[in-house]
Amino acid sequence: MSESSPGTASHAVDLSGENVHWDLGEAMSYADYLRLPELLACQRPLTDRHDELLFVIIHQASELWMKLSLHEIEAAIRQIRADDLGPAFKMMARVARVQVNLIQSWEILSTLTPADYSSFRAALGRSSGFQSYQYRMLEFRLGNKHADMARVFQSKPEIYTHVQRALTEPSLYDVSLALLATRGLEIPAEKLDRDFSQPYTSDPRVTAAWREVYRDAEKHWELYELAEKLVDLEYRFHLWRFSHMKTVERIIGAKPGTGGTSGVAYLQKALSLRFYPELWDVRTEI
Q: Contact, 212 vs 220, CB < 8 A?
């Protein structure tokens, strides 16, 4: 029988005195609560290529994080409408932390080499991230409206209904501008009562309202914090898009995307889009 040398610590965790529930019987377990058997059965690569599992897990995990982001943003919209900004700030801050994980996911996917991806890319057929309805809903909820983007979901009526609702309802920015008006700042009526399915266009009068908030932050502290929370979300969204574009460029070069877009060229165009233009314009004027 061997013993540890004097002065060396055992590598085993001491469980003496711990009241571990070894026999759960009919009680709910960790795996039961998280439905792990069902969750872990969702990873079903279509080929026997080693690297396809990475590709599947990255995209499935991203969809879970987007589900949480939608949950938080939709709740934040309700709180801002109710002029209850404390909870909204917490929700928006949480989404910003989720975005860090989404950005980091491209770092992991970038370990996929062009040869690795080519070995199973044909099995994807026409499936593409362009068809992620949660991503599109998240864009719409944040404020980047584009009705044509919803067309790809028309063959799935239940999904299409959810996407259309996100398209036609006021976005996070729309309700923020409505709150500015409620708080006494001058927001043009046509910005408050409009077709919310249409892209938002910049207005110098809205820039002036935000300039008033920034110039007297002490007076408008909550609105000032709201502005910075909005900028933070868009800033991280642009970082996510840039990381996506560079990862795609690294793996497939200038090849077209599986969903029919031009690939990297399409992703580069998206980098120029701005959700909250006046919040960027006002920085030039401060």
A: yes
Q: pLDDT tens digit string along 159-172?
A: 999 999 999 999 99
* 71-123 pLDDT per residue, tens: 999 999 999 999 999 999 999 999 999 999 999 999 999 999 999 999 999 99
Distances in Å between the alpha carbon of 198 and those of 120, 131, 166, 170, 248? 38, 20, 12, 10, 29
Question: What span, in angstroms and rounded, lies between the C-alpha atoms of 192 and 200?
Answer: 11
State the pLDDT confidence band at 5, using cuts at 50, 70 and 90. low
Q: How far apart are CA 6 and CA 246, in angstroms?
A: 54
